[in-house]
Amino acid sequence: MPSIVTPSPRDLAPSARLDDRVWVHAAIDALEREAARSADTHLLKIDLPGFPDIDFYFKDEASHPTGSLKHRLARSLYLYALCNGRLHAGQDAVDASSGSTAIAEAWFARLLGLRFTAVMPACTAPAKIRAVEALGGTCDLVDDPADVHARAAAHAARGACHLDQFGLAERATDWRGNNNIAESIVGQLAREAHPQPTWIVCGAGTGGTSATIGRYLRYRRLPTRLCVAEPAGSAYVHGWRTRNANAVASLPTLIEGIGRARVEPGFLFDVVDDVLEVPDAASIAAAWTLETLLGRRYGGSSGTNFVACLQLAAAMRARGANGSLVTLLCDRGERYAETLFDAGWLAARGIEPSPWRERIEASLRDGTWRAPD
To answer: Edge-to-edge, what's the strand order for the sheet holding 199-202?
Structure first.
């Protein structure tokens, strides 16, 4: 893939600052050309027998070139760094990530001819680590996931540009439009039977997606409500309920990308209308069910979203309401072939998704929701 190759600023005399500005302009041009080449992601519709008056839509963010909704975020983070004078020609880039953002950031680093380091928990799905390395990135693995922020800051102290998805996601994305995910969803629904969905459901990794959607719904004066679907006991769950920015998770999770251990700076609680907790076993069972429904695999966070949709739809059906729900298919399930889709790996961690899968399939048939006995 062609890349922008320019000497490092450390190798240039002060009089060469204009050359760096030229590089920055060329880098922004490269990002904008990439965006122009990228088609929008599909909005898939599924008719479920148990919900005849409720339409289910799935925004397939896994169809991005880097395989997840984090492709949008990574592009925005590089633009934000460039336009704020934080990223220069030849400078290394670094970020803390559980995988999908790192893959996208490594992809864009290769586009711009930059070196990229992903600080990742050592427990990250092996396929994600391989994907970062295949794109030319370096993975700095840490045993304690809580240490990723400090390790990324250490790289930045040595001169790397910290893209800082957790600190900057909610401001790096243009929530008023510019084909952000919320604007894309609303535009794709324009000719559907229920163009203004009752609910949009997403998770909270950095908080950027929920912040963008929640702000956009208010900006467009839409009646649609936003639900954040989260692993049980996550920091977002506790923080949202108490509006406590110091909340921490009460339970660990196997669902990568969401279920943060602490409240991140991008978590905006006041633009979210409801938060639903989903046990890991339910999320995994729902991811398996999505493969049956859609013909391809999606990751655990997509399953978390789907479980929340079924709960919201069951409540709508119980009160005789019709309408539509939209949720996100967050990343490719092939990345979890050695983890969430491996029965041995699940058994070793005490996870048995079968009871939840039976309950989910019953919900698809009868339009009700209850947890397994």
So the answer is: 43-46, 54-60, 323-329, 199-202, 225-231, 274-278
